[in-house]
C-alpha cells in the first residue's frame, strides 16, 4: 500500500502493529480477551503473522501466575485492571480460596470458539499447567457452550474439541464421573468415530471406578436388545488393552465383580444373543474371578429365558464356566438342573469327584494310620474332617445318566468310613496309652512315700 515512512513521513501499519504488540504486557485482561475474540475471525492471518501467539503467550502467562496472584476477572468493562495485586479487604479474603485462584479464568475463556480453545489448551499443556485444572476447565467449557449452542453441529464440534483436549491429559487427573456423563450426552450426538473411540478408551482405562448404573446404558436406536452390550465389551477391551498381566489383580477383580453384576442384569434380555452373552463371560481372564457362582446363576436365567436353544448352543455357553471355581451348592444344583446339557452336568460331577479325591488324599496324609506319632488332638480333628466328607458326599444327588460316577463316589464313601473307624480305633488306643502313662506316673510318685 506504499505506506512507508519515507513516503508518508509516518510509521506504516505494520510498524504500528509491532509497537503495539511490544507493549502487550501492559494490556489489561479485558483488552487481551477482546483482541483474541477479534482474532477468531482472522485466525489464518493472525496465526501466520504470529500475532495470536503473542496474545496467547501473554494470556497463558497470566493464568499460570494466578497461583500467586489473581486478577479481578471482568469482561464487562475494558477499563478494568486485569491484573491487580491489591483489592479491598473483602476481595483479598476471597482470593485466599485456592479453588478460586485456580478457576477464575474459566468464564472468560468459555466465550472462545472451539478452534481457539484447541490452540490454547495445547499451549497450556506444553507449558505444564496443572492437568486437573485443565480438565475441569474443559468440562466447564463443554457445559457452557452446550447451554448457548443453537445447532447440533455446534454441540458436536464442541464435544469433539473437548474430547481431543482431554485425551492429551493425564487420566488420573480426570473425573471419571464426568467422563461417563459426557458419554451419555454423546449417545444423542453424531460425533466423529475417532473422538468416540478416544472417549471410550479413556473410560475403559478407568473402568474399575465404574458402578453398575454407569454400565446400564440403553442400546442404540433401532436395536432390539435392551442394553448396549457392545459398548461394555469395547470398554472392557480398552481396560485390558495392554494385557491382563499388566493390570493389578485388585483392579482386575474389581472389574470382574462389576461385570458379573452386569451379566446377571442383562441375562434375562430375550434379545441378547448367545455369542454376546458368552463374550461378556469370557471378556476377562479366569484369574480375575475367585468364584463362578454368579456366572452360573446368570446362565441359569439365560437358559430359562432362551428355552429354544439347542444342546450345541448351550454347551458353547457352558464353556464359559470354570467348574473348579463353582461352589459345591452350585455344582449340586447344576447336576439336577434339566435345562443344562448332560455333558455339562457330567463335567460338574467329575470336578466334584476330583475335589473329593483330593480331600481324601489329604485325610490319608493326616491320618494316624500313616503317622503313628500324631497327637490325640490331630486324630480327633481328622475324624471330624472324615465325618464332614461323608456328610458332603451324602448330599450329592446324582442323576441316572451318571451312574458310574455314583458308584465311584459310593466306593469313596466306604473308604472314608473305613478311615473313620481306623481313626476312632487309634483315638481309643491313644486314650488308653495316655491313661496308662498317667497311672504309671502317679505310682512312681507314691513309691518314695511307702519307702519312707
Question: Can you describe what's shown?
Answer:
By secondary structure, the chain is mainly α. It has a domain at 210-216 and 225-361. The chain has 23 helices and no strands. It has helices spanning 5-8, 13-22, 29-39, 43-49, 51-64, 89-95, 98-103, 106-109, 114-126, 131-148, 152-166, 176-186, 193-205, 212-215, 229-239, 249-266, 274-281, 293-305, 311-318, 328-336, 342-366, 376-395, 403-451. Helix 9 (114-126) packs parallel to helix 11 (152-166), helix 12 runs antiparallel to helix 13 (193-205) and helix 13 (193-205) packs across helix 15 (229-239). The longest helix has 49 residues, at 403-451. It is elongated.
What does the secondary structure layout of this molecule look like, with pairings?
Blueprint: H1 5-8, H2 13-22, H3 29-39, H4 43-49, H5 51-64, H6 89-95, H7 98-103, H8 106-109, H9 114-126, H10 131-148, H11 152-166, H12 176-186, H13 193-205, H14 212-215, H15 229-239, H16 249-266, H17 274-281, H18 293-305, H19 311-318, H20 328-336, H21 342-366, H22 376-395, H23 403-451
Helix pairs in contact: 3-5, 9-11, 10-11, 12-13, 13-15, 16-18, 20-21, 21-22, 21-23, 22-23
Amino acid at each position: 500500500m506504499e505506506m512507508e515512512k519515507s513516503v508518508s513521513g509516518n510509521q506504516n501499519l505494520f510498524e504500528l502493529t509491532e509497537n503495539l504488540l511490544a507493549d502487550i504486557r501492559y494490556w489489561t485482561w479485558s483488552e487481551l480477551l477482546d483482541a483474541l475474540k477479534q482474532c477468531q475471525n482472522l485466525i489464518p492471518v493472525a496465526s501466520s503473522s504470529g500475532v495470536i501467539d503473542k496474545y496467547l503467550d501473554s494470556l497463558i502467562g497470566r493464568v499460570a501466575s494466578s497461583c500467586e496472584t489473581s486478577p479481578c476477572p471482568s469482561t464487562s468493562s475494558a477499563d478494568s485492571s486485569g491484573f491487580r495485586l491489591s483489592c479491598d479487604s473483602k476481595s483479598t479474603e476471597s482470593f485466599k480460596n485456592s479453588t478460586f485462584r485456580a478457576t477464575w479464568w474459566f468464564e472468560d475463556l468459555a466465550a472462545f470458539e472451539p478452534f481457539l480453545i484447541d490452540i490454547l489448551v495445547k499451549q497450556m499443556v506444553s507449558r505444564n499447567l496443572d492437568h486437573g485444572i485443565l480438565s475441569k476447565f474443559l468440562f466447564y467449557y463443554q457445559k457452557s457452550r452446550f447451554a448457548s449452542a443453537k445447532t447440533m453441529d455446534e454441540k458436536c464440534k464442541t464435544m469433539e474439541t473437548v474430547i481431543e483436549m482431554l485425551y492429551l491429559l493425564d487420566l488420573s487427573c480426570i473425573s471419571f464421573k464426568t467422563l461417563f456423563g459426557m458419554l451419555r450426552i454423546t449417545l444423542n450426538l453424531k460425533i466423529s468415530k475417532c473422538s468416540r473411540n478416544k472417549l471410550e478408551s479413556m473410560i475403559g482405562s478407568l473402568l474399575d471406578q465404574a458402578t453398575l448404573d454407569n454400565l446400564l446404558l440403553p442400546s442404540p436406536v433401532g436395536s432390539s436388545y435392551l442394553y448396549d452390550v457392545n459398548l461394555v465389551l469395547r470398554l472392557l477391551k480398552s481396560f485390558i488393552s495392554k494385557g491382563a498381566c499388566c493390570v493389578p489383580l485388585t483392579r482386575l477383580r474389581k472389574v470382574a465383580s462389576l461385570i458379573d453384576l452386569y451379566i446377571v442384569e442383562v441375562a434375562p434380555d430375550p434379545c441378547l444373543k448367545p455369542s454376546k452373552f458368552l463374550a461378556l463371560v469370557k471378556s476377562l481372564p479366569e484369574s480375575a474371578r475367585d468364584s463362578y457362582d454368579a456366572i452360573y446363576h446368570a446362565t441359569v436365567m439365560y437358559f430359562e429365558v432362551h428355552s429354544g436353544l439347542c444342546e450345541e448352543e448351550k454347551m458353547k455357553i457352558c464353556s464359559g464356566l470354570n467348574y473348579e471355581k463353582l461352589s459345591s451348592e452350585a455344582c449340586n444344583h447344576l447336576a439336577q438342573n434339566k435345562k443344562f446339557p448332560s455333558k455339562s452336568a457330567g463335567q460338574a460331577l467329575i470336578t466334584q469327584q476330583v475335589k473329593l479325591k483330593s480331600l481324601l488324599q489329604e485325610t490319608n496324609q493326616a491320618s494316624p494310620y500313616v503317622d503313628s506319632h500324631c497327637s490325640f488332638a490331630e486324630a480327633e480333628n481328622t475324624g471330624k474332617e472324615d465325618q464332614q466328607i461323608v456328610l458332603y458326599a451324602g448330599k450329592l444327588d446324582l442323576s441316572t445318566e451318571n451312574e458310574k460316577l455314583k458308584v465311584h463316589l459310593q466306593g469313596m464313601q466306604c473308604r472314608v468310613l473305613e478311615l473313620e473307624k481306623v481313626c476312632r480305633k487309634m483315638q481309643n488306643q491313644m486314650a488308653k496309652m495316655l491313661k496308662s502313662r498317667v497311672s504309671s506316673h502317679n505310682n512312681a510318685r507314691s513309691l518314695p512315700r511307702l519307702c519312707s
